[in-house]
Amino acid sequence: VKNRKEAPDVQMAAIIALGEMEDSTAGPVLMEALSNQEAWISGRILESLGETHYESAIPKLKEVLKDSTKSRDMRESAAEGLVAMGTPEAFSALLEGYEAEKENRNIRSDIQSAIGYLKSESLIPMLSDVLRDKSQSPELKSAITAALFRMGTPAALNGVTEAFFVEDPGFRRIVFNRSMYKDEEFKENREKLVPKVVNMIKDAGLPKPAKETAIQFLEKMRVNTPEGINALIGALDDNGREVRIQAAYALGNLRAESAIPALAKHLSDGAMNEAVEFALYKIGDPGVKTLIAARKKELEDKAIAQEQKINIMASLVKTEENDAIQSVIERQDPVLMTSNGLQKVFSGVQNQIAIRYLTSIATDPHQALHMPRYAGYALRESKNSVVVQQELTKKLRDPNPQVQTLAIETIEYLHLFEAIPKLHHVLKNPSSDKEVREKSALAVVNISRDSRENVPFSVVSDVAPVLQNVIVEGISENKDKSISISGQSVVDATRFFIDFKEEESVQKILNSPNLRQKLTQFKMYLTDLPTRGIPRDDKLLADLTSLLGQ
What we know:
The chain is flat, with a radius of gyration of 35 Å. With 550 residues, it is an all-alpha fold. The longest helix has 20 residues, at 457-476. The chain contains 32 helices and no strands. Mean pLDDT is 89; it is low at 476-483. Helix 2 (27-34) runs antiparallel to helix 3, helix 8 packs antiparallel against helix 9 and helix 18 packs antiparallel against helix 19 (306-318).
């Protein structure tokens, strides 16, 4: 170590060996070498100084840890040296360095990680004091809990249970997220701790936050022993709302089939409803079947409130089970045929039966005025856009032009770009109703607004003449059109013509007083949006201003 002529790898091996000897008499040699070595070797010297327990090195280790001019690696090595030292003075130096680096997340993270490997039982009282200190960060407390768990002695594991009494929600959220708690290496420590935790959950006098953390421990540790599951089942009846909810989530994540009857009893508890549903879903098929049966039975109650009925039907649809969804549809409940009913009950649905049902409403010309749009709202939230598109494009082949028109409007509303080829087919079909063809052309223009480069030329060549007929020739000549054209549609058509170099059509729009007025009105509408707190498309506004010469 002293001989600078030695090869660096030989010196490094010697430095490591001195540390592993854990002999404090090697400390002075390492201290002397510290000032004569390159940084990459000096870092390992700092770690070896801690391993030798040479306490006179603590001031130097502390100095390097707090020196912002030193590299991150050097400062991390100093932290690891202080951890290896394991004395109260060394731990105090770590805390001091941690507090000094509130603006440097990297250094704080390195110190936290190092603290998680403290091994000295003599520090347990100090570690417990930090856990009780409300001013300390949840991340630091989590690292200290990890260190106590690694130690695994009775006193250290008692220190871990002390961590359950930390009231900081941020701490409870992260404390048991470390993978080390599940490692086989620490299986013995985990098994020693579980009985303590189970007894804490059963303790009626335990503060609620501590009980919640104890439940979280069993969940994160995947403790699905009969004792652990029974303790969680008992916690479903705790007088603390959050304790009950936490227990339900834990039972679900542990896939505890034995908890199904107990969970089912709490389905009608409004405070626990969401957590119990989650648990039954997570448990799997037996849990889902129990949920469906319970929800169907609840729907038979004629005195049930409308909002509660919607929630129950939503719960059934959420299972994505055919029989559950079919039971909701077959009820033909009037509450379902409202904007809130359809949207809430079928929100996020993926099931084909449900999507087919929504599609049938969205394309039914005999429905009440707003129902097709309400169904469109629900389809928009579906997580199975492929099936949504398949079901809607099937409606384009319906012989009834009204059904086709509603299907096109829904496809346009949902911006289903992949449906453009099907709309193109409608356009090319000479037997298609004139209004249907015009609607298809406008839908293609609107859907492709932000993806013009992906529209095949064959589609453009068929859309352009229909679009010109409906927008340019129809309105500019004041013909009686079967469909009304909005200012947005005129703007979209104009941009479409510009994008595809249809200059003659653009000029016809500008030369038409009627169409020019619609463009001007739409520009005024855009200009006014910020005054109502609504964001606007400034590029579109600039394009319109340039086009209109205003």
